[in-house]
Amino acid sequence: MEEKVSISLMPVQRDLLLKYESDFVDSALFRLISVSIKKGNTYEIYLHENQLEELLNQIFELSKHEKNEKLVYKLDDLHDYLSEFYDEDDEEMDAQDKRIMEIVGDPEEADFDESIDTFYKYLKTNLSFPCEVTGIEDFQWEEYYVVGPGNKAEYEHLKKKKPSYRDRYELLEIIQDADSEWMMCEGDDLGARVRRISDKKEFVLGLSEIKATDKKSKNYELLDDYSVWFVNNR
After folding, report:
1. I want to staple 219 with a disulfide (CB 3.0 to 4.6 A). Which of 58, 129, 147, 212 is the partner?
2. Helix (H/G/I), strand (E/B), else coil: 152
3. Which residues is 202 bridged to in the sheet?
């Protein structure tokens, strides 16, 4: 019998899910959340991996259709948190390794500059533009505010002019030898010219720092493959 995954939810995380009772496709899955057992300061739920995968898909759909930006952030954070409990199948990992090797060859033997040029040409041909993307984690300038002592009000003000990893963007094109203050690995990473959806401001971000919002799309796979390769080989 398939073992269940034990998941601890903070009250605010559970309450967030309970808001969407009428939107849950699987009522039995919602019931597991609503009757979860409180242990100390958290609620414990026990899900089979296929149930956890379904919950992740449900949260993704909720985020995709939610109009309230703050709730979108909370749903995305919850999705990232629950994803840590999901054991990705070894076959999926092997499939990604195989895809990367088909593009650049053996990463351990390939020259970085030649490989990134090859990856650029491959992505240029296979990515569909425009594509909705967001940040994988806080951008370099945000670290002081997200994990450091930065003032919250100041952070909210700066985000109006600077790109945030929580924003949604349209990916317009990818650039070789990009020059941008917003890239963590300027000079190594490919550039991503994006347009912020909320105010149409354009930025050049590091391609390895963004992901497609549609996790079922080919673009998501392509960008994820590039990010994994870049982080492991730069």
Report:
1. 212
2. helix
3. 195
Q: Is 191 exposed, middle or buried (0-12, 13-18, 19+ CB in 10 A)?
A: buried
Which residue from 113, 167, 99 is spatially nearest to 135, judged by alpha carbons?
A: 167
91 — pLDDT class (breaks 50, 70, 90): low
d(CA 79, CA 176): 32
Taking alpha carbons only, the member of 211, 197, 190, 135 closest to residue 169 is 197
Taken as a whole, the chain contains a residue count of: 234
> 3-state class of 150 per DSSP?
coil
Give the global pTM. 0.72
Dist. CA 79–CA 75, nearest whole Å: 6
Exposure on the CB side of residue 10, measured as CA atoms within 13 A: 7
The string of pLDDT tens digits covering residues 92-124 is 557 888 899 999 987 677 889 999 999 999 999
Cis amide leading into 163 (omega within 30) = no
Q: Are strands 37-39 and 42-47 parallel, antiparallel or unpaired?
A: antiparallel
| Cβ-based neighbours of 144, under 8 Å, separated by 6 or more | 150
| Tens digit of each residue's pLDDT (9 = 90 or more) over 131-144 | 999 999 999 999 99
